[in-house]
Amino acid sequence: MASFTPEPHSSTPPAPPPKGSTHDMSSSTSTPTTSPRVTSAAPTPPPSEPVPDPGENWLPDILREKTTQDLADILGSPTLLHALALAPCSSHECTQTSYEALSSALRQNSLLARHLATGGSRLAMQRSTTQAQLLSTHALERQWRQRQADMDHALAPFSPASLYLQLVQGVQEQALVCQAMEESFLEGEGEGVPASEREATEWIRRYREARVLCYLRQERKERWDEGRVGGWR
Question: Which family, according to UniProt (predicted)?
Answer without folding.
Answer: Belongs to the VPS37 family.
